[in-house]
Amino acid sequence: MPDYKGIQGTAVQNFAADPPAPVTGQVWYNSTTGQFKYKDVIPTGAWATGGNLNTARQQLGGAGTQTAALNFGGYTNAPNPTALTGATESYNGTSWTELNDLNTARSVLTGVGATNTAALAFGGFTFVPVTNPVANNESWNGTSWTELNDLNTARQQPGGAGTNTAALAFGGEGPPPVGKTGATESWNGTSWTTTPATMNTARFAMGSCGATNTAALAFGGAEPAPLYADTEIYNGSTWTEVNNLNTARAYLSGAGTNTAALAYGGQIPPAKSALTETWNGTSWTELNDLNTARGGLAVVGPGTNTAALASGGATAGSSGATEEWNAPYSATEIITTT
Questions:
Q1: What domains appear along the chain, each with residue ranges and CATH number?
Q2: Taking a C-beta distance cutoff of 8 angstroms, is the pair 25, 38 a contact?
């Protein structure tokens, strides 16, 4: 096996003390402490207050970007038939505008889509005629919602990734006796196909994200107990378990891709969570918290891991709060390896 010098072309330098101005990526040996060290870039960022939703709600769906987002569905108070909403709102980076409602009012649904003019809403929970998960699937064209072919497996609180013409649905909770599921379905713009791939850990109320239906990330969730910190990556054919979240939780939201993601909010019963973590393709790092701890934010939050949006959710009741995540800079840190 090649050694460090064989790979890098130079040996690790010995220092009696840490060098005064190491460069990012530099590795050295501190002979006084007997430790190998290196300098790395640690991502950082902060949440800022944005414009409130017109309809405060939780367990809603979302799509788009930080400056062109779409939120839809959810419920406004306690879960009952009169509290369910199909309300749809568009965000321009400053304020929310009410648009045409979903055809089927529901909560704990999932949304995907790269813009606020082309989105997909699937799954969820209604109270008519019975309190069971649904397979409903609707497409948004910038003006109105159109009902399309349903999911093969009705489910609430599934994960999702992709666009309104190439989406992925996974996990969630099906009607009795199905219960929690790890089933994965792919959408081609016309119909859903159940794939051979099944999540390693069947669960619902997870965070998820992904730009396509062949590259997704799933993290956290519940079944309903225990809470999960598990993270899985989908490569178009299989799910692979990777490093866990630092803090297990459910009803959290996610943004970004399977190599650069953000996980935020959630619930650690009985409390709501403000925790924010970033994923670099290998591991999770804790960053600055949300200003308001919330669970049940828009599932598959719009944006990236450097420019995300947290909208709606549950505090003591349903929330209309919106926060914008920006990570314009990074901090550097000397890390001890041994």
A1: 4-42 (no CATH), 45-328 (2.120.10.80)
A2: yes
**What is the Cα 196 distance to its own chain's centre?**
23
- H or E stretch covering 112: strand 110-112
Q: In this predicted model, which residue has the larger pLDDT, 299 or 267? A: 267
Q: What is the pLDDT of residue 338?
A: 60
Q: Which two tokens stand for residue 304?
A: 């990236």
Tokens of 244: 């866990």
CA distance 321 to 315: 10
Distance CA 30, CA 205 (A): 46
Indicate the average pLDDT of the chain. Answer: 89
Total-model pTM:
0.85
Q: Per residue in 176-194, pLDDT tens?
A: 888 899 999 999 999 999 9
Identify which of 272, 318, 251 has the alpha carbon closest to the alpha carbon of residue 84.
318
Q: Check if the beta carbon of residue 50 is closer than 8 Å to that of residue 65.
A: no
Residue 6 has pLDDT above 60, yes or no: no
Question: For 19, phi and psi rounded to 5 degrees?
Answer: -60, 145
b/e 319-328 (16+ beta carbons within 10 angstroms → b):
bbbbbbbebe
Query: Token pair for residue 91?
Result: 């965000």
Task: Tell me which DSSP letter residue 100 carries.
Answer: P
Alpha carbon of residue 94 to chain centroid: 22
Say how many residues make up the chain: 338
